[in-house]
What does this fold into?
Amino acid sequence: MTIFAAVMVSIVFGCSIHLLLGRDLVRMTLGVSMLSSAINLFVMFCGLMRGSPPIHPLESGQVSDPVVQALTLTSVVISGGVSLLILGLLYRVAMAERTLDARCLERAEIKDESALEREARW
Amino acid sequence: MIVAALALPLGLAIALSVFDGRRRGTQILALAGLSATLLLLVAIARVIHTGTLLETVAGGWPIGIGIRLRVDALGIVFALVSVSVLLAALLRECSSGIGWRAVPAFVTFIAFGMIGLCFTADAFNFYVFFEVAMTGSIALAAYSGARREYRAALVFAVVNMLGSAMFLAAVAGLYHVTGTLDMRLMSEAPAASDRGAVLPLSAALLVAFSVKLGLFPFHAWVPAVYRDTSPMVAAVLSGAIVNIGSYGLLRFASTLPAALDSGGGLLLVLGSLSVIYGSILALSQPVVVEILAYSSIAQAGYILLAIGLGSPVGAAAAVVYAAVNSITKALLFLTGGLSGRGLGWAFLVGALSAAGVPPAAGFFGKASIMRAAALDASAMLLAVVFAGSLLSLGYMASAYRRRMLESPHWQSAGLGARVAVAALALLIAGAGLWPDPLLRAGEAAAAALVTR
It folds into this structure.
């Protein structure tokens, strides 16, 4: 079970890193939300997973750990919210710069930087 | 009292998100509410000063089952510093005109997150409050939305999301290893002294907090974000959000002493690299914001150095330095883009403090780090701190000179902005002339870490 968990988490984690390192900003955002899924999976696997569900009345003696499930639920909500926030920001960036390519953004940044030096903003 | 200090900013933030923050009434409500929160924190600090410990377990559960809120000297110092910086930033922004309705609400949400972070004794709760503060600051980073701000906010959001993921993984791992989420019970668990189990988790914690602090190998986002956001947001990031990093490092270093024992050397190396790298790059920057951004990489290095020493004197020095540095950086950023009488003097006070020149509080921050390094009898560290101070004198002089060349694009400062800047400057100058309370707060915080 431990090896299964390790393999699962590392596959999802590896995919998310692959997405994050691409040039396309939409894929990068997907990579961020996939990374939080990998971590959520890791949190789930951090607790005991054998045994019956921890719902009263209990069916058998062995009950799985309810704490990690509560933690995962909380972190799913948080990572969902943050992913939405990043998507919203991405939309604004895409509308303002008219591009979804990380390299074009970089070029725009360098251009702004030299403009900043010329006008001596502060 | 603890619950009130959390409920007040939370209720205020929810109420403020309904109203339009561009209206005068909403701004006054936000300022009054944040001031009331600050007063409440001062009252809590007075209680803690008498030696009593404030503690409450949610829902009346026994300790170890319920989620515990617990205030000690370390937590209250960081909560006070963060809320003061947020209040000053909001006051400056209200007087120079808020262009986005959600600004007061987000500033209050950040205050709620920071207070919760400093008050909680539960590692997962720490993560939740951490995310509240981070989400607020990500949204705020897009404020005054031109292209540059959105781009900066996107970079900030993605980088910090990665840091948060590392932190959550470390918290889950700690739960797996020690069987509890309560930080105090965690440090008492036998597995907490098992190096093989704890070291990889503390490495993840170090990465997570280093990203927040902007330490040397994790600093790439710092200059881009500080340069491209508005000065008020830069002040919030460098005065309040940075405290997540320094407070978290201090708190978790004392939770996992075994990791600090074997990893202290690494912290010293990373800290020294950060100091030298940040200082040298700050010297070569052409714009004031960039000088300040790179100097904050160097300042983060000092904090890591002091923690890496692993002694109570080192922890006290880290607390004093982190507190002074937050207020100083907030002051320097808040004067940005404003012109007017007195602002130059305020910037001078901040520059002296950042360079560690005697009449300002920064001197005592640097002096206590030097003292901790000298007690550790390490000539190498003393040389690094000394070289960093010399370089900081150089780059702050250059920042001051550039700041004096006022540009016609600047706004003239309103009354609120002047009051905010003057209050921070007086705080720094006052703490420099009468450093006793500051140094004693640092010692009390370090003592709270050691005895717990």
